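Field reference: sequence -> structure
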Amino acid sequence: MSLLVGGEPRGLRGTTLEKVACQRAGEGRFLDDVILHAIDADGHAAALEIQVKRGVSFAPSDPLFRSIVGQIVKASQGPEFWTVRYELAIAISRTSHKIDGAYQDLLRWARQIGDAATFTNQVNRPGAGNKDMRSFVDTFRAHLRDFGAADDDEAIWRLLRRLQILVFDFSAEGSASEALAKEWARQVLHPDDAARAGALWTALTGLALEIAAAAGDRRRQDLFNDLKDRSFPLAGDLRYATARKALAEASRHALADIGSQVGGISLSRDAGVAAVRAALDAGRYVEIRGDSGVGKSALLKKLAEQIAAEGKSLF
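Structure field:
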């Protein structure tokens, strides 16, 4: 859908998607299930490798996480990994309180903090980091060591700031991800055929499976041709880059105006974020209620900051 609408792909902020490829381990793409190729506003190339799993616990005993860290080590040894924008992601459909809270915050810190020493100190400092963050780092360090890679603080920080956990809830009842995809489908279709949004989404799902099975790829024009062959009349090349940029800028200013500390102390809102995400699994819209001053805006700010790691959020 990102390719069709000419928009920003999830996981590669500030870029426009050009091609989606599947199953490219033979080409040195070690997180090889889905590979996104995009360009940023300056015309520079960006890539995102995604390993897809139904669920990963990220616990020390989780063999899937250990295996993925091995793939991350191999990806990081590629000739272009440290010279271009080269991102890595683990896509899952089953999340948890720890994933939605501590683990996402840890990866966000790695991206936002500019050096390894400050990042490590914040994770280990009481009142800032927590035991779940430290457990993730310790597990990641142990797996790096198992695969013969550098496991010092600098190496861990540099890899974690390239890593994302992307949650897609397509298997949930009332999936928010599926609702968004169908909304995009209505935008792509000719107005006279907007009612066929569900059929378009079904067709795209089937096409994605065919492409993956053949280790294929698609560019935007190829995808347009595929859909025309399936008798889906499209609305044309609609782009709203300028409007999206203005809305994103206004959202950043709105978030900056919201305080997130009480008496200089940052309060944990992991339980609230987890509750919002759980509610989204059951429906497309969530209403947050509470008396004045209980922290509704601060909760929304934390949720928006997490989402902003994957793409634009409007606030």
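Note: Residues 19 and 219 are 4 Å apart (CA to CA).
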